[in-house]
UniProtKB/TrEMBL annotation:
This is 5-carboxymethyl-2-hydroxymuconate isomerase. It comes from Mariprofundus micogutta. Transmembrane segments: none annotated. Gene3D superfamilies: Macrophage Migration Inhibitory Factor. CDD domains: CHMI. Signal peptide: none annotated. Keywords: Isomerase. Coiled coil: none annotated. It holds the Pfam family CHMI. GO terms for molecular function: 5-carboxymethyl-2-hydroxymuconate delta-isomerase activity. The keyword Transferase does not apply. It comes from the Bacteria. InterPro entries: 5-COMe_2-OHmuconate_Isoase (IPR004220), Tautomerase/MIF_sf (IPR014347).
Amino acid sequence: MPHIIVEYPEANVDDQSVDAVLQTIHRSIADSGLFKANQIKARAYPFKHFTNAGGSDPYIHIQARIKSGRDDDNKKQLSEVVLAGLAPLNLQVSVVTVEIIDMDRDTYGKFVPA
C-alpha cells in the first residue's frame, strides 16, 4: 500500500522518463514517512488517444489508491509529496494531476504466495 498508477501519453513520454517518474514517486512517498518503502507499489500505463479540455496538450494523471481510513490532511500531503517530487523532472506535458482514491479497508484482499 499504496498502489500508484501513472497514466501518460505514449507519444510524449519516453521509457526513460516513465522509469524516472516511477522511481521519483516511490522515493518521494518513502521519504515523506507516510508509507514504508516496501509498501509502495507503482506501475505506469501509456495511452494513445486523448483530449485535454478539447485540445491535444499532453498530460499525466496519477492515481494513488490507499486503504480507507486516512484523514483528508494525510491524503492532501500524499498528493503534495508526489507533485513536489515530480516538479524537478521537467516533464514534457502541460499538466500533472494526482487523485487519491480510498480502497475499502474491509473488502481489500491480499494473497502472498509461499
